[in-house]
Amino acid sequence: MDADILTLPEVAGLLRLSEKTTYRLAAEGKLPGFKVGGSWRFRRTDIDVWIEQKKAEARGIER
Asked: CATH number of the domain at 5-62, please?
């Protein structure tokens, strides 16, 4: 399996979130992902970009 494609449990572990929260964020379009046969999948590069965007947003709020 391509290491660049992550499952929902893998992304939940990476982000230190529950699987339920990860699923909700993906379903709401707040976390970049796509469905394959009804199961969520995520590109590692998309998750890394998302993390950097969230960090930038947090820095903007702190100012």
From this structure: 1.10.1660.10
Q: Residue ranges of the domains in the chain?
A: 5-62
Query: Which amino acid does the sequence have at 11?
Result: V
pLDDT at 60 over 90: no
Closest CA to 11 of 35, 38, 40, 37: 40
pLDDT digits over 16-34, tens only? 999 999 999 999 999 999 9
CB 4 within 8 A of CB 44: yes
